């Protein structure tokens, strides 16, 4: 999602994105299958693009330097698959519960369940199946901790759907908590300790993303659309303040970690792209972009470059020094 050149906050509704070029060949057939069949609708309903967030399970194994071992790679892969199943099932059950509200939303009404491409009954059956499969797959690591973390993630997700999403501030922390559990799952999947630095950075980064998402929703759709109960309790100034607080605290914490007795210069150098990622995200949210944070990582080229730079420096620092 490429941001416009004007950095000023928009005073009116953001312009709709330009239409995508008509796909050709295999891409056209895939799109026709996704939008023209029940199976394709089911695939869209589990939101494969949002599985990008499950990449957080790789953070702890990478930081611990075990991802290049057979056991570490196997444990991380199992954790990733388990969270994809858990997230897909949770999306299905959540969208089935929110189908009526989603039909009022200009974007969410195109989701398979809200649009009628996938029935509520079929979504619930598939959702329950995936939810039950997730802890079973997690158990393949041979560690009881990973199924427990997956179960905790599911409990928090369902608690959010049933109650927490109606409580201002608590809803922000609950969604951020889901991201933290993803990152923690990667650590328990390979049996590495989790440092306080790691948890603080992940927690603050998750809260910043969620605050930015809510701010973008409020900016684009207003507080009275009926699509999210807590939006009316927030103001753009409050959510911007939350982002600012999280950004500052996260940068300080990351700097302390990166400069804390690590060999070689690469950890310290990774501070530069890390700060650029944080600043770029805040800039995009201020421009009215950020309702789907995972889309930013897939479409915004400067953000991709900054993330790539940081990952490259960390990988070199971890595995080559």
Automatic annotation (TrEMBL):
Its EC number is 2.4.2.45. It is a multi-pass membrane protein. One of its GO terms (molecular function) is transferase activity, transferring alkyl or aryl (other than methyl) groups. It is found in: Membrane. One of its GO terms (cellular component) is membrane. Keywords: Glycosyltransferase, Membrane, Transferase, Transmembrane, Transmembrane helix. This is Decaprenyl-phosphate phosphoribosyltransferase. The keyword Membrane applies. The keyword Lipid biosynthesis does not apply. Residues 13-24 have a biased composition (Pro residues). Residues 1-26 are annotated as: Disordered. The chain crosses the membrane at residues 75-93, 113-134, 146-163, 183-204, 238-259, 265-283, 303-320. It is an enzyme of class 2 (transferase).
């Amino acid at each position: 999602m490429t941001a416009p050149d004007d950095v000023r906050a928009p005073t009116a509704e953001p312009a709709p994105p330009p239409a995508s070029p008509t796909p050709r060949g295999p891409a056209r057939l895939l799109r026709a299958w996704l939008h023209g069949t029940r199976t394709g609708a089911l695939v869209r309903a589990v939101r494969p693009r949002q599985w990008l967030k499950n990449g957080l399970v790789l953070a702890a194994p990478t930081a611990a330097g075990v991802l290049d071992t057979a056991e570490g790679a196997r444990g991380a892969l199992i954790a990733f698959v388990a969270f994809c199943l858990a997230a897909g099932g949770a999306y299905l059950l959540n969208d089935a519960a929110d189908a009526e509200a989603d039909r009022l939303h200009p974007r969410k009404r195109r989701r398979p369940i809200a649009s009628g491409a996938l029935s509520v009954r079929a979504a619930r059956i598939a959702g329950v199946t995936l939810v039950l499969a997730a802890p079973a797959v997690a158990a393949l690591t041979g560690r009881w901790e990973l199924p427990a973390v997956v179960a905790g993630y599911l409990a928090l997700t369902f608690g959010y759907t049933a109650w927490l999403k109606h409580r201002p501030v608590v809803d922000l922390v609950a969604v951020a908590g889901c991201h933290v559990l993803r990152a923690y799952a990667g650590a328990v999947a390979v049996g590495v300790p989790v440092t306080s630095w790691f948890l603080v950075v992940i927690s603050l980064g998750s809260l910043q993303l969620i605050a930015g998402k809510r701010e973008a929703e409020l900016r684009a759709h207003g507080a009275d659309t009926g699509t999210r109960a807590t939006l009316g309790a927030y103001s753009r100034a409050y959510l911007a303040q939350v982002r600012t607080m999280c950004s500052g605290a996260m940068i300080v914490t990351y700097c302390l970690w990166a400069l804390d007795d690590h060999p070689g210069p690469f950890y310290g150098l990774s501070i530069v792209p890390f700060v650029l990622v944080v600043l770029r995200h805040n800039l995009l949210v201020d421009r009215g972009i950020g309702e789907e944070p995972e889309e930013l990582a897939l479409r915004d080229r400067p953000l991709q470059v900054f993330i790539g730079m940081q990952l490259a420096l960390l990988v070199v620092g971890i595995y080559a020094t």
